[in-house]
Amino acid sequence: MKNIVLIGFMGAGKTSIGIKLSYALKTPMEDTDKLIVKQQNRSIPEIFATDGEEAFRQMETNLLRELIEKKKTSKQGLILSVGGGLPLREENQKLLKELGMVVYLKAKPETIYERVKDDTNRPLLQCEDPYKKICDLMQEREAKYEAAATHIIQVDGKDFKAVVDEIKKLK
Ligand code: S3P
What we know:
This protein is an alpha/beta fold. Helix content is 57%, strand content 12%. The protein contains eight helices and five strands. The radius of gyration is 15 Å and the shape is globular. The structure holds shikimate-3-phosphate. Shikimate-3-phosphate is lined by residues 10, 14, 33, 44, 83-85, 122-124.
């Protein structure tokens, strides 16, 4: 089976959809945020506060390289959900495609806001006006997500099962 990589903005459903997809396809799932937290033994807000965003971005690139190395010797497929900022580096866009099929879960800012408004675990959205921040970041990131993706799925108004069914049909 081909690896499936899920990308998209914070709150687009990458982790939840990844877990459901993992059950449906009986394929293991990993999440870059969780792997980094495990490697570092610190939370994402702690990493951002102590080392800064750039250091976190470098951890993401290093992790992608490790996963590509692992893929070379693994017979099993993998579902991988990646942090919302990971596809922004051009280098990472190439690495993601080396890993497998890259599915962009595309959502409107309203959808994202509804899902993340009570969350304190995303340092970039801990600000005065998170809705505006989501709109601004989305505008900056959209083209990069599209460049990183091999497939795009619009998720607004769909439940996770509907999105999982769409992904299962992708070739
Ligand atoms: C980030 C998204 C987060 C996490 C970090 C930075 C981003 O992951 O990697 O807070 O820049 O969009 P999720 O997309 O899983 O929330």
